[in-house]
Amino acid sequence: MSRILIVEDEAIIRSALKRLLERHDHRVSEAGSVAEALTLEPRGFDLVISDLRLPGEPGTELIARAAPVPVLIMTSYASMRSAVEALKLGAVDYVAKPFDHDELLETVARVLHRQAAQQGEPPDITEPGGSRQPMIGNCPAMQVVYTRIRKAAPADVTVLIQGESGTGKELVARALHQQSRRAQAPLICVNCAAIPETLIESELFGHEKGAFTGASAARTGLVEAADGGTLFLDEIGELPLDAQARLLRVLQEGEIRKIGSVETRHVDVRLIAATHRDLQSLSKTGEFRLDLYYRLNVMQIDLPALREREDDILEIADVLLGKACQRHERDRLRLSRAARRTIRDYPWPGNVRELENALERGVILAEGHLIHPDDLGLAPTLQPPGRSPAPAPVRDGQEEQETGDEEDLSLEDYFQHFVLEHQDQMSETELAQKLGISRKCLWERRQRLGIPRKKSPRRSTG
Ligand SMILES: Nc1ncnc2c1ncn2[C@@H]1O[C@H](COP(=O)(O)OP(=O)(O)OP(=O)(O)O)[C@@H](O)[C@H]1O
């Protein structure tokens, strides 16, 4: 069942439309103007159907104020030009009045269907520099994350984001803020683990002059700086108990009191918290307040570790590699086939951030137009097994054609390592046999790769 908001000033049309939609299993609310519609929180609906001409502001005003909820505009045949204008402003579609029932139901079904299909799509995020990028990755676990973001963002509730370090928790917080009605107000991000325990309360809640030694002037805290907007508290599990108590008060009463002050001040802040720790377990050992945990956990978003996002890893690597090349003003580098295999098989304990850093190293260290596994500088103890040079598999002609250039080059890596490591112990015939190629081919490749045959070591004579 979908929730639809009808905004129409003519009561007869409004109730006819309501009955029609209710007969088709939709739950319908009504408003007679944009102002009235806004009191009903249009972002909480699945679709807004609004007349264009209304007393007060026109229906198109709702397009931005209901976003990302789609707005379907109703207009009379006489004002088709305004319908086109409404589409330009971002209306999802329009219906001409008087409307044909089937046509209207069909349009509504199409819009709702499209909306449902988009729920699992990555949201766009505006980065601090102003550029707009979608979150990368489309594996099923991330689609669940995207759907959660779309639903939680407009609901103005507290959200707890859980996931290992570097999985993108801050990115999700940004997406939630940017898709909320607070998008134009500040988003203040605080990493609780990065602020010394002795300073965190005054950083968050502010202090009066002389509140403690060194407080030479009054200071506004970060919670107050986020007034009207969103406060993102990363690593909230690290927040000391006293600060937890103050935070609980902000959530319960919407009030803040600076350190050393007797006065309270009202603040309107949406809290988004993130942690890589299990807050419920921390509450059992008394390190985290259970009542605060319940306050935070109105909506929960769980981010998968990168190693669980097998289908996404290479896609993320390609996008991040492109960005690293831009940053370092290098022509577009590519990952060798072996580097792609390493990236796919590596466990990535530091998740996307670690991948980002490895690619940055790769871009700096790569000598040709390809990045090889060594350029990534990954921890050897975590490297997947079987990475030591081994004979290249015998390839038939078809595989050779399919794999192309890049495969050749990574096999050349293999070839080079294998030859250099074994040429002192093996004859050319043995080397060629192990590599699955002819002696002639071995000779040609040696020439091409600049590893000519050494003066053969005397293996038999004494
Ligand atoms: N899905 C994604 N698409 C694009 N970039 C991503 C994605 N996930 C993470 N990143 C990038 O990875 C880096 C780490 O992400 P972020 O800071 O959001 O992680 P985090 O979980 O908050 O880490 P920490 O807990 O260590 O603070 C950032 O540069 C971010 O842009």
Automatic annotation (TrEMBL):
CDD domains: AAA, REC. The modification 4-aspartylphosphate is found at D51. Gene3D superfamilies: 1.10.8.60, 3.40.50.2300, P-loop containing nucleotide triphosphate hydrolases. Residues 382-392 have a biased composition (Pro residues). InterPro entries: AAA+_ATPase, AAA_lid_NorR, CheY-like_superfamily, P-loop_NTPase, Sig_transdc_resp-reg_receiver, Sigma_54_int, Sigma_54_int_dom_ATP-bd_1, Sigma_54_int_dom_ATP-bd_2. The keyword Protease does not apply. It comes from the Bacteria. SMART domains: AAA, REC. Residues 3-112 form the Response regulatory domain. Residues 375-407 are annotated as: Disordered. Keywords: ATP-binding, DNA-binding, Nucleotide-binding, Phosphoprotein, Transcription, Transcription regulation. Residues 135-364 form the Sigma-54 factor interaction domain. This is Sigma-54 dependent transcriptional regulator.
